[in-house]
């Protein structure tokens, strides 16, 4: 069974450009999460999808970030326009939806996308 | 709200020596606790978890952690480390209410020296 897959593994863009990150969760996982680690700091939650619906987007930094999960399968995270402070590693995680409370569903992480904004 | 503190950013240790990576948390509600590990050039992998039951949890590669509610700690230990244990270790919590938001500590880099 394939794990959580993220594309690209590394992206280098200039300030003001647009970048789209993609995450393919483990097949059948209803929950999909995005996290970010800015250099030297802790990994921080961005948002949580349950199927195609945004359950919690309290961690999204600002309106330059747009996440989608059309059809409840893969997800994209678009940054437009990118700023220098957006640099970091973006992680995606997925978990099954069958256990309550939701916190008991173990999250499986992808390898991350390293974003460098110059 | 929850928070996690990993007191050591780097822990150097010689091969076959014991190690403890410290993790303290704060929360106004019950929590579930996790340790994740990131080996060089790889993604995060779940190392072990505490959801309920026995407060001592163990991984398949010799690590163990003990949930101490009174001290709000979840320290990670291994009696004898290997070179291959060199990695960054993250402690994380989730409040037991209906949220999937993991709260991470700052990470501890374990450097095992020959």
Short summary:
The complex is a heterodimer of chains A (118) and B (114). Chain A has 118 residues and is mainly beta. Helix content of chain A is 0%, strand content 47%.
Give the arrangement of secondary structure elements.
The complex is a heterodimer of chains A (118) and B (114).
Chain A: E1 5-7, E2 10-13, E3 19-24, E4 31-37, E5 43-50, E6 53-56, E7 65-68, E8 75-79, E9 88-95, E10 108-109, E11 113-117
Chain B: E1 3-5, E2 10-14, E3 19-21, E4 24-26, E5 31-38, E6 44-50, E7 56-58, E8 64-68, E9 73-78, E10 87-95, E11 103-104, E12 108-113
Parallel strand pairs in B: 2-12
Antiparallel strand pairs in B: 1-4, 3-9, 5-6, 5-10, 7-8, 8-9, 10-11, 10-12
Q: Which structural class best describes the helix and strand composition of chain B?
A: mainly beta
Mean pLDDT of chain A: 93
What is the share of helical residues of chain B?
Answer: under 10%
Q: Main beta sheet of chain A: strand number and arrangement?
A: 7 strands, mixed
Q: What is the N-to-C order of secondary-structure elements of chain A (H for helix, E for strand)? A: EEEEEEEEEEE
Sheet having the most strands of chain B: 6 strands, mixed
Task: Work out the number of β strands of chain A.
Answer: 11
Oligomer: heterodimer
Q: What general form of chain A does the structure show?
A: globular
**Overall 3D geometry of chain B?**
globular
Q: Figure out the total of helices of chain A.
A: 0
């Amino acid at each position: 069974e394939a794990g959580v897959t993220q594309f690209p593994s590394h992206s280098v863009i200039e300030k003001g450009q647009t970048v789209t990150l993609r995450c393919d969760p483990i097949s059948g996982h209803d929950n999909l999460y995005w996290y970010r680690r800015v250099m030297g700091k802790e990994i921080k939650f961005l948002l949580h999808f349950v199927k195609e619906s945004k359950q919690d987007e309290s961690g999204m930094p600002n309106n330059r970030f747009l996440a989608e999960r059309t059809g409840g399968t893969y997800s994209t995270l678009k940054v437009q326009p990118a700023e220098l402070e957006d640099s970091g590693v973006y992680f995606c995680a997925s978990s099954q939806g069958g256990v309550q409370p939701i916190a008991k569903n173990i999250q499986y992480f992808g390898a991350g996308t390293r974003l460098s904004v110059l | 709200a929850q928070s996690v503190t990993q007191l050591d950013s780097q822990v150097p240790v010689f091969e076959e020596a014991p190690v403890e990576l410290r993790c303290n948390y704060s929360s106004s509600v019950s929590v579930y606790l996790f340790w994740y590990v990131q080996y060089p050039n790889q993604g995060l992998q779940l190392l072990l978890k505490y959801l309920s039951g026995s407060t001592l949890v163990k991984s398949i590669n010799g690590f163990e952690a003990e949930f101490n509610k009174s001290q709000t700690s979840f320290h990670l230990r291994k009696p004898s480390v290997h070179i291959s244990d060199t990695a960054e270790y993250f402690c994380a919590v989730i409040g037991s209410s209906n949220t999937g938001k993991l709260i991470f500590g700052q990470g501890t880099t374990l450097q095992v020296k020959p």
